[in-house]
Specification:
Elements (H helix, E strand, L loop, with lengths): L6 E5 L3 E3 L5 E5 L6 E9 L5 E9 L6 E2 L7 E2 L8 H4 L2 E2 L15 E9 L5 E10 L6 E7 L2 E7 L6 E7 L9 H7 L4 E5 L14 E2 H13 L3 E11 L1 H12 L3 E7 L10 E3 L2 E3 L10 E2 L5 E2 L25 E7 L7 H14 L5 E6 L16 E4 L4 E4 L4 H22 L18
Parallel strand pairs: 2-10, 13-14, 13-16, 15-18, 16-17, 17-22, 22-23
Antiparallel strand pairs: 1-3, 3-6, 4-5, 4-9, 5-7, 5-8, 9-10, 11-12, 12-14, 18-19, 20-21, 24-25
């Protein structure tokens, strides 16, 4: 039974945006008593994710996660958002999924007597994705399929296209949260969604060209160019788009590959074959998971030449973000190779940032860590790498860098010269 005098506070409110900090505080317990805090969320597929941490109340009978250390559980130490980023699936190898951003993600927080296991008090944090007044518009324009997010207020706004990872369908959380920052964002699907091909044999870059034109021509979008944000397989697509298509000003590639992967990519009369994987370099973890980190050839090798995107043709600004413990492929090698190609062609319009101990899926802040899961191209569960705390810190840091990058390079063109040209090429 809950104790009436015990209070669980979620500050500043039980209603927050998904990417914002929640201050969890318990008051009214017995001084110096053991308190377990538990968190639980059910994703849009019905998968349950849980985390817990043990605390000791102070002399006033309070537990403040922003200042008190966790003594054990899913994490240790002072971790203000530990109950969120350490959420782990009850069934292994499942990634947190959010399909419908019109509804919030509900995270239940409980304070439990650390000695008896009695639930003392509970509260639910509603983690929203869209600010009030934002428009979410399904897009069926020619071949283009996706969802457009338009922020409230007087436009036009800078435009960004959000490309997600290999696996088909559509992902909207990052796009909606970016739109909250004052951008028109198109979350673009490219297969396995509505009437798009379910199992394409080739990807057509002209489809993405149509999407760029659609977004640039939209009356709510301020031109002349747009931004791209991508991750994993779509990082390669973003590099290809930046290499061949006009109208792209700023491109974010998160844990992408400089070479084409999985499917051939066609643009007009040009076909770029996928990098040839070497199954001899596939290994297994101690728990039996497949590790494909070294399955692709080095991008500088002769066998890779035909599959490498010609990013020396690009005229946009790049932000390459790479996790050092990415086991989907070697993202750092790819980012360094891309930077070297640009530099060798006299192009310094790029930034590279790398994150030690971070894994493959660098997403929005406080997204639950995904160390392993099903890989659509491999057809089985694989290891994605990373350590939970370091990965969480990387997500938070990268989100800030993405905001700064787009603010700088998608700004009003008449003022763009006023922005400092910081060539922080961290190689």
């Amino acid at each position: 039974m809950a104790c009436a005098q015990i209070r669980l506070k979620l500050l500043p409110s039980i209603h927050t945006f998904f990417n914002k900090l929640v201050h969890v505080k318990v008051e009214g317990v017995a001084p110096h008593k053991s308190v377990e805090l538990r968190s639980k969320v059910v994703d849009d597929r019905g998968m349950v994710f849980k985390a817990s941490a043990f605390y000791r109340a102070d002399e006033n009978g309070s537990v403040d996660v922003c200042s008190a250390p966790s003594l054990g559980g899913s994490y240790t130490g002072v971790e203000p958002m530990g109950l969120f980023w350490s959420l782990a699936p009850e069934i292994l190898h499942n990634k947190f999924t959010k399909k419908n951003v019109l509804s919030p993600t509900l995270v239940e927080i409980q304070a439990v007597n650390g000695e008896t296991g009695e639930v003392l008090v509970s509260e639910t944090n509603e983690r929203r994705y869209m600010m009030e007044g934002m428009k979410r518009i399904p897009v069926q324009e020619g071949r283009i399929r996706g969802v457009l997010f338009i922020p409230p207020g007087k436009g036009p706004f800078p435009g960004i296209m959000d490309l997600y990872t290999f696996g088909g369908g559509l992902s909207e959380p990052r796009a909606s949260l970016l739109a909250n920052e004052g951008y028109v964002v198109l979350a673009l699907a490219y297969y396995g969604y509505q009437d798009l091909p379910k199992k394409p044999k080739m990807l057509d870059l002209e489809y993405f060209e149509e999407a760029v034109k659609y977004l640039r021509d939209h009356p709510e979008v301020k031109g002349p160019g747009i931004g791209l944000i991508s991750i994993s397989h779509s990082g390669g697509l973003a590099m290809a788009m930046s290499s061949f298509l006009p109208g792209i000003t700023a491109t974010v590639c998160i844990n992408g590959c400089i070479g084409n992967t999985v499917l051939p990519l066609r643009y007009k009369d040009i076909v770029i074959p996928p990098l040839p994987p070497d199954t001899a370099n596939v290994t297994f973890t101690d728990s039996g998971l497949v590790d494909i980190r070294d399955a692709l050839p080095d991008p500088s090798s002769e066998e890779s030449k035909a599959s490498i995107f010609p990013i020396e043709r690009a005229s946009c600004r790049f932000l390459f973000a790479a996790s050092e413990d990415d086991h989907n492929w070697n993202s750092v090698t790819s980012a360094k190779h891309a930077a070297a190609v640009l530099r060798d062609h006299g192009n310094q319009a790029f930034d590279v940032v790398t994150y030690p101990k971070a894994g493959h899926f660098l997403e929005v802040p406080h997204m639950p860590f995904c160390p392993s899961g099903f890989h659509a191209a491999v057809g089985t569960n694989v290891v994605f790498g990373g350590e939970p705390k370091a990965h969480s810190e990387a997500q938070l840091d990268l989100w800030g860098k993405v905001q700064e990058f787009f603010r700088t390079y998608l700004g009003n063109k008449s003022n763009i010269a006023a922005y400092p040209d910081n060539n922080n090429n961290k190689i």
